[in-house]
């Protein structure tokens, strides 16, 4: 190497170091500015992850019920995802109303009342819609099921009502605490509400299975639920205030699309159910994995929607630098979340087997088949999580910007779009990771 080449190489190294010295303060400065967002976001995601893992334990423990009631697994991703889509979007709208000074704690009139009424109507209508869709697609695609359409209506709608009532109360409490304590609801609403939705919806669905198969009563209850859902939708459009009608008009088509995508996830789960049944650690991971992707995207979507509303971010086709700052936060959150739920799923599966040996016997498993291993679970969760987070980032940004450009409310559209995208692509990412780690055979 000549002297001239050595000098040129040294100068190139110095230039790279100078660039890093300019970049690092910006990066560290940004992270310092967002210290409170990081603290609130990690706290909410940690709590939601714990809740999702509890939901995973419930899912693993009812694997016998899933084996007995063939076709029930088709409904589970859609039922729990719909709660997150409805109440996550509600939380995002309330967050924007708090930041714009329009929020008031009044359940009779105003933003909170309109959103509560919308949540009731959407919960009823989506429950009936998912039931008919699940039974229809099972028949069209030849997926075996022992449940009638009325059985699906009872399970989906009553389960949704039970979970929805509790979620509505939690949403109001979160909004009230955000106002009282100065929290940024964008950072906490999506993860907390999606986790609460999973924890509440799974037991609710199991409880409602006891309402099916009762002569006359079950079919009669299903017919009543169908009529009530239609009546509430008609009354919402005819007697509701303008903002309520707008929420319903924008939400119903989107939730129909979201529900269709999530039913497809359920069909894929029913088809690959044996993989998850034979490795309970994967069943424990599943709700946390799917919903944390939605929670990460929900945080990003809420932040972007609020900034677009406030004029701090332009809804451009190519994201501006301010948007990449929020993308960075999302990936930082994702690293911690997916490593945590992957490792925790392994240890919870081991603990489940020790506390409930009868479960292993009923499934014909041994203690060594509870989990593919601690490091393998970390690898599966991290790899699939990286793919799911990338999907969530794209869905959050373009869901918010495109809806705003078309004159629609990005708070209403952002989280349901993310829920559908991340549930489908997240499940596909998980299957890809399982194939890479040779766990699907």
Describe the structure concisely for a colleague:
This protein is mostly helical and 441 residues long. It is built from 15 helices and no strands. α6 crosses α8 and α11 packs antiparallel against α15.
Oligomer: single chain
DSSP summary, beta strand count: 0
Q: Please, what is the average pLDDT?
A: 78
Structural class: mainly alpha
Strand content: under 5%
What distance lies between the first and last C-alpha atoms, to the nearest angstrom? 54 Å
Approximate shape? globular
Defining key terms:
441 residues, mainly alpha, single chain
What does this structure look like?
This protein has 15 helices and no strands. It has 441 residues and is an all-alpha fold. It has one domain (41-436). α9 (242-271) runs parallel beside α15. The protein is globular. The termini are far apart. Residues 16-25 and 363-368 have low confidence and may be disordered.
């Amino acid at each position: 190497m000549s002297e001239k080449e050595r000098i040129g190489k040294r100068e190139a190294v110095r230039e790279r170091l100078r660039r890093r010295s300019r970049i690092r303060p910006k990066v560290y400065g940004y992270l310092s500015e967002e210290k409170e967002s990081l603290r609130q976001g990690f706290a909410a995601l940690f709590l939601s992850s714990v809740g999702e893992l509890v939901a995973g334990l419930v899912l693993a423990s009812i694997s016998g019920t899933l084996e007995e009631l063939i076709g029930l697994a088709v409904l589970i991703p859609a039922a729990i995802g719909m709660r997150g889509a409805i109440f996550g979007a509600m939380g995002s709208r309330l967050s924007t109303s708090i930041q714009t000074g329009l929020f008031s704690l009044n359940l009779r009139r105003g933003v909170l009342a309109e959103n509560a009424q919308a949540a009731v109507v959407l919960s009823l209508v989506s429950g009936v819609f998912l039931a008919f869709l699940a039974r229809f697609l099972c028949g069209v695609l030849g997926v075996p099921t022992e449940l009638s359409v009325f059985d699906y209506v009872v399970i989906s709608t009553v389960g949704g009502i039970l979970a929805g009532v509790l979620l509505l109360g939690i949403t109001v409490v979160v909004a009230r605490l955000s106002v009282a304590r100065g929290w940024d609801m964008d950072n906490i609403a999506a993860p907390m509400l999606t986790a609460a939705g999973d924890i509440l919806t799974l037991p609710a669905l199991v409880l409602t299975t006891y309402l099916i198969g009762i002569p006359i009563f079950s079919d009669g209850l299903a017919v009543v639920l169908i009529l009530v859902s239609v009546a509430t939708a008609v009354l919402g459009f005819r007697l509701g205030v303008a903002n309520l009608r707008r929420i319903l008009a924008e939400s119903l088509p989107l939730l129909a699309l979201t529900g269709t995508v999530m039913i497809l996830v359920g069909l894929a789960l029913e088809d690959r159910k044996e993989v998850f049944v034979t490795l309970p650690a994967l069943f424990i991971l599943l709700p946390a994995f799917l919903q944390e992707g939605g929670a990460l995207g929900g945080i990003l979507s809420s932040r972007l929607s609020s900034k677009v509303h406030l004029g701090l971010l332009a809804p451009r086709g190519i994201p501006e630098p301010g948007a990449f700052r929020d993308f960075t936060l999302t990936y930082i959150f994702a690293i911690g979340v997916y490593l945590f739920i992957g490792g925790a799923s392994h240890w919870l599966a081991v603990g489940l087997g020790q506390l409930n040996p009868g479960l292993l016997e009923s499934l014909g498993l041994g203690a060594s088949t509870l989990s593919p291993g601690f490091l393998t679970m970390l690898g599966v969760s991290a790899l699939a999580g990286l793919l799911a987070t990338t999907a969530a980032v794209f869905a959050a940004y373009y869901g918010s910007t495109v809806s705003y450009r078309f004159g629609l409310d990005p708070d209403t559209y952002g989280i349901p779009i993310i829920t559908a995208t991340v549930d489908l692509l997240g499940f596909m990412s998980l299957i890809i990771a399982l194939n890479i780690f040779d766990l699907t055979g």
